C-alpha cells in the first residue's frame, strides 16, 4: 500500500512540476508578428536563460518545495489520525505524508513561482528585443 502511494506521488511530481513553470506572454505587436511564433518562443527562452544566468533561478522553485513540505506535514498528521482509528497509524501517516507532499509540491508549482527581480529581468530583455510583455502564465 505504502509503496503504491509513494510511486503515485513521485509520478505526479515528475509529470506535473516541469509543465507548470510560468513563462511570459507577449502582446502580438508588429515585431512579434514580423518574426513569427517560432522566433518569439526562441527569444522568450533566451531571455529566461539570461535571467537564470544573471539573477539566478533559485526563487523559481521555492513555492513548490515549501508547499511540498507543508503538504507532507499536513498529510502525515491526517494519515496518523486515520491510522489511529483504523489500527495502522504508522503506515497511514507515511502514506498521508507522501500524498500530501506530492499534492503540495504540485500545488506550489502551479502557483506563481517567480520573484519580482526575475520577472523584471525577463520583461526588460523582451522589451529590448522589441516585444511587449503583458503577463505570465
List SSEs in N-to-C order.
HEHHHHE
Report the count of strand segments.
Answer: 2
Q: Please tally the helical runs, counting DSSP H or I stretches of 4 or more residues.
A: 5
Overall radius of gyration:
20 Å
Measured between the Cα atoms of the first and last residue, the distance is: 37 Å
Proportion in β-strands: 5-15%
Helical amount? over 70%
The biggest sheet amounts to:
2 strands, antiparallel
Q: Return the average pLDDT rounded to an integer.
A: 76
- Report low-confidence residues grouped into runs of 5 or more: none
Question: What attributes does this structure have?
Answer:
2 strands; elongated; single chain; mainly alpha; 74% helix
Give the arrangement of secondary structure elements.
Layout: H1 2-16, E1 24-26, H2 30-55, H3 62-86, H4 89-110, H5 116-128, E2 133-136
Antiparallel strand pairs: 1-2
Detailed description of the structure:
The chain is mostly helical. 74% of the residues lie in helices and 5% in strands. The chain is built from five helices and two strands. It has a two-stranded antiparallel ribbon. The model has no long low-confidence stretch (mean pLDDT 76).
In short:
With 137 residues, this protein is mainly α. The chain has 5 helices and 2 strands; from the N terminus they run αβααααβ. 74% of the residues lie in helices and 5% in strands.
Amino acid at each position: 500500500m505504502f509503496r503504491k502511494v509513494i510511486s503515485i506521488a513521485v509520478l505526479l511530481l515528475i509529470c506535473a512540476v516541469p509543465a507548470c513553470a510560468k513563462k511570459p506572454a507577449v502582446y502580438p505587436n508588429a515585431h512579434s508578428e514580423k518574426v513569427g511564433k517560432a522566433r518569439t518562443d526562441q527569444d522568450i527562452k533566451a531571455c529566461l536563460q539570461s535571467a537564470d544566468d544573471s539573477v539566478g533561478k533559485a526563487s523559481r522553485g521555492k513555492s513548490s518545495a515549501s508547499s511540498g513540505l507543508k503538504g507532507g506535514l499536513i498529510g502525515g498528521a491526517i494519515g496518523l489520525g486515520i491510522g489511529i482509528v483504523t489500527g495502522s497509524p504508522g503506515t497511514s501517516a507515511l502514506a498521508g505524508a507522501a500524498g500530501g507532499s506530492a499534492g503540495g509540491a504540485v500545488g506550489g508549482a502551479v502557483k506563481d513561482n517567480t520573484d519580482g527581480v526575475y520577472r523584471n529581468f525577463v520583461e526588460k530583455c523582451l522589451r529590448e528585443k522589441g516585444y511587449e510583455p503583458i503577463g505570465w502564465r
